[in-house]
Amino acid sequence: MDCRACNESLTAFVDHELGAPEREALETHLTQCRPCRQEHESLLGSSQLLDQLSSLEMDPSLWKQIHSEITRLPTDQPSWLSPLQSFFGFRWIPVAAGALGAVILSFFLMSDPNVETQQEFQVYLEEREQVDLRRTAVPPQEGMREITTALPNPFTVSFDSSQRNPFTLE
Amino acid sequence: MRSRLALLILLLAPQATAFSQNWNQVRSSAERQHEMVMLLIRNGDFGRVLEASRQIFSLRFPPSQEHLLVQEGRILSEALTHHQQFQLAQGLLDQALRAVRSNPSKIALYKEKAYLYTKQGRDREAMEFFERAMELDKSSP
């Protein structure tokens, strides 16, 4: 075994992970190579130091203390929304949003002139639909061609009884 | 010289006649022409309607009788609408609008145009003319 192969297998050797043939070959090399033997001793010392370390156990009450600190922080700070929150509980958010929406909608409805004009137009259309221009229907007389339509002639002077023919029999 | 004088008289005669028309003559002409227009509409001779109606709206109506022109516009417009002649009806109302001078008459005719556009399903134009009527109404003393 050469030094390069020895260095590559040295960690596995310390951890007792090498097979018997490789272990014997490495042990033979270590007895013959001083630098590799020093490396082995250094690695072995580090491994022994790590084995002496004990694992740290966290105190179970520590997380409880942290959690209580976190939850206590917001309640300690007073807010301008606190009266609302105490009155409505958590329902104040949709209540406030609804009230705000109603205010905005009423503002637009009251200030938009188009809405007012449209309402007036609808009223006018309803009134106009009820206007009957066919007020003076003239029934066709027998033997005469009907030349007067059902629609009135606005320029026709209404019949004046004072100008009736004096020779007409009653 | 005489021929020039005759020509001048010929040119000025209609103007002088128009000025000398009294109300009864105007009314009688309008009445007769109205029947003519209605006959054209009833016979479906729509191509001659505007030409015939123009003779009504070009008559010199006294301001006190201007409402009759508005009424005539509405009646003829109604008759044309009955025959689905919406464009002609709008053109006729335009003739009436050019003939009237008072704001109440113009307001009534603008509203009539708006009503007619509504009948055509042209709501945007209808609203424009109604708004014009409302603006004129607000600006009127």
A few lines on this structure:
The complex is a heterodimer of chains A (170) and B (141). In chain A, 62% of the residues lie in helices and 0% in strands. With 170 residues, chain A is mainly α.
Notes on the protein architecture:
The complex is a heterodimer of chains A (about 170) and B (about 140). Chain A has about 170 residues and is an all-alpha fold. Chain A is built from seven helices and no strands. Mean pLDDT of chain A is about 75; it is low at about 135-150. Chain B is built from seven helices and no strands. In chain B, helix 2 runs parallel beside helix 4, helix 4 packs antiparallel against helix 5 (about 85-100) and helix 5 (about 85-100) runs antiparallel to helix 6.
Secondary-structure blueprint:
The complex is a heterodimer of chains A (170) and B (141).
Chain A: H1 3-14, H2 20-32, H3 34-52, H4 60-76, H5 82-88, H6 92-111, H7 113-130
Chain B: H1 2-20, H2 23-42, H3 49-57, H4 66-82, H5 86-99, H6 103-119, H7 123-139
Helix pairs in contact in B: 2-3, 2-4, 3-5, 4-5, 4-6, 5-6, 6-7
Q: Features of this protein?
A:
heterodimer; A: 170 residues; 7 helices; 62% helix; B: 141 residues; globular
Shape of chain A from CA axes?
A: elongated
- Proportion of residues in helical segments of chain B: over 70%
| Whole-angstrom Rg of chain A | 55 Å
Helix/strand order of chain B: HHHHHHH
Task: Tell me the span between the first and last alpha carbons of chain B.
Answer: 53 Å
Helical segment count of chain A: 7
Overall shape of chain B: it is globular
Largest sheet of chain B: none
Specify the biggest β-sheet of chain A: none
Radius of gyration of chain B: 18 Å
Quaternary form? heterodimer
Largest interface: A-B, 18 and 25 residues
Helical stretch count of chain B? 7
Helix content of chain A: 55-70%
Q: SS-based structural class of chain A?
A: mainly alpha
- Mean pLDDT across all amino acids of chain A: 75
* Number of DSSP E strands of chain A: 0
Hey, roughly how much beta strand do the residues of chain A contain?
A: under 5%
Percent of residues in beta strands of chain B: under 5%
**Which class best fits the helix and strand makeup of chain B?**
mainly alpha
Low-confidence stretches of chain B: none
